[in-house]
Amino acid sequence: MTYIQKNNRLIKLTICVLVVGLSGCSTLGVQPWQRDLLAKKEMALNSAPLDSALDDHIYFSKEASSGGRSFGGGGCGCN
């Protein structure tokens, strides 16, 4: 194999890898017919918000710190 043939083969391989890599992100997002499944309560990231809020309050009170979960406050646990 000559140098030109090796170079051509490398260029073709690089182009193929780039095309496959760029086409992999072409189907991101939720289709309209999938939104009904994602709107169900069991698909929520937090299916029990009250329990989560209580758990967070207990955790941050015992750790003497607060914040990082979309709320701010002191370290005394009285927020």
Q: Output the radius of gyration.
A: 26 Å
How much β-strand is present in the residues?
under 5%
* Order of SSEs: HHH
Low-confidence stretches: none
Question: How can the largest sheet be summarized?
Answer: none
Distance between the termini: 74 Å
Q: Kindly state the number of beta strands.
A: 0
Shape: elongated
- If helices are DSSP runs of H or I spanning 4 or more residues, what is the number of helices? 3
Mean pLDDT: 75
Helix content: 40-55%
- Give the structural class: mainly alpha
Short description:
The protein contains three helices and no strands. By secondary structure, the chain is mostly helical. The termini are far apart.
